[in-house]
């Protein structure tokens, strides 16, 4: 049996033998490198070391993980995000005291020896043999730097981190060989600079600059002698010597460093004694990382930028490759966010909807003709504290970009139907009978030569908001009053496929990524959309028919070592969705909505604007989507979980019997856009005259009503509300109860995977 020490470990002789074995093997390797003729001994262990002769290409300048800064369009900082909080600085920007302190305590002979300090090895061997334990190591600062490089490359992968730090002869040999080559190629000053930038100082601070800011709220170049000693002492064991959680232990460690600095002649004994009497003098800055640090309520915009980076192949062919670049950081991302627009959006949201309300609101602003996202906000604050009402679910965007399943846009979808009809040749003064109530026309042509058909024995019906809404109506008045039966007659006349095709050209798609249902009820906004989708879709009208894909990133600079390079970024692609004449006609129709229609409360006064209100079944959601020639915006209000109907409800401290798109979302849009457009040029629409059609002139109905509800719940349930994702994006919510019986077998449309049946059958 081998002899054990009294503590249960190896005896002093065994400890010495173990350490000597490593030292001899290391020496053999060194001999093998330096003297090829006698290399057999050293290379005997070569088989136990993977990639023994391969020096990583980035050993000299490792890709250090740094913080990423996200900027708005004018260069103002939105947020800082990082995998590891680090700011790389040159050695000249590190206090001389700090440079001396780290060398004194970690490797006082750093400038005298090579990559391996043989004198240090012997000294450690002797001390360990006498103490009966391995109380002192012999790794040089260069060797520590090499080990840190491998730890850095391992990232957050626990298996790779374990491999990089495992106490094996193989790892030590590899570390030694790399240390020799690094010494030859970098030199002492550069090694010290790299070491100070890569080392972990605890409290989420990597590198000396982050450490100086974390513990003392100052730059590394301004550290005094006692501050430098404290930080140098932390390196050996960041948890044990953490000054935030154990001031006494940290103070003892600091004083040891000061004594060592005096012993090697870096400071005088008197300086050391005086510094040891000083308090720690901490001025701690709390770690703040990620989009929670965003200003102007831009946390969700920041999060969207991250999603774009991680999902767009322009930043890497694979998701893993993109994640590696993002986690490595060191990026400066200039975005499209307009600071004034973002601030105005968030201010309007805060004024109209409280974060504690039963319902929430989300809003987005897009620049027509460019696809640039100018603002994105919501009433539920960004964060992870559920008790404070925080969430990381971005209510403005699609599911695949960190959002929900979307919300039915209601009558805000009607202008897309009108655009398809006009583009197909329908006159803008087209008149339909538009009765108060009617059965869905049948059959209706759909894509692929199919037809949607109502049930003849018991046809489903729809009706307008008010019984006073009885046609005939022309397109202008039907749009201003949001007459349901008019638009169902329209889509039944032109067919479903032109509408879904137009929607696709405008970038209007379901938030859950599914294809749009082939049913005439889509004219009433039964397909769940996101606010960003609707804002960008309406921007197509504002830009006279040109659709541009949305973009959030203008440029990305990546810092690598001492240089910064530009990365390619996603570009907006623009295409013509409709003729200029069609777009101009829609603009004329929607100007009427805000001038003398359901959206009158959203008007911008003397500045020309256009838009459309929308309210869904049983008021689970309400919308206003509108635009000027230079900005388009969408506002949604509703319960993200799709449980609270907006009847007899208090929103923003104000009580409502019924919520309409023109009454809550409309004023939010008005205030948001007024601030966003302040100081911007007043641009005009290209005016187009729409002749009056045949019009009965049914009087002055209450303009506060949107007339967007589906009349007893029918409009929304047809072709969209039976199945999985029903009414507003929550998925699996209760189905509204219609006020009429549903004929058996009526829902035989294309199922598309278990939700949103198409409201009829194809023949």
Give your account of this protein's structure.
It is elongated, with a radius of gyration of 34 Å. It has a five-stranded mixed beta sheet with strand order 2-1-3-13-14, with helices on one face. Strands 5-4-18-17-16 form a five-stranded antiparallel beta sheet. A three-stranded antiparallel beta sheet has the order 8-9-21. It has 763 residues and is of the alpha+beta class. It is built from 22 helices and 21 strands. 51% of the residues are buried.
Short note summarizing the structure:
It contains 22 helices and 21 strands. With 763 residues, the protein is an alpha+beta fold.
Number of strands: 21
The level of helicity is 25-40%
What is the average per-residue confidence, as pLDDT, rounded to a whole number?
82
- Find the structural class using helix and strand composition: alpha+beta
Main beta sheet: 5 strands, mixed
Task: Count every helix, treating DSSP H or I runs of 4 or more residues as helices.
Answer: 22
CA-based gyration radius: 34 Å
**Major β-sheet strand ordering:** 2-1-3-13-14
Task: Give the tags.
763 residues; alpha+beta; five-stranded mixed beta sheet; five-stranded antiparallel beta sheet; 22 helices; 21 strands; elongated; disordered N terminus; disordered C terminus
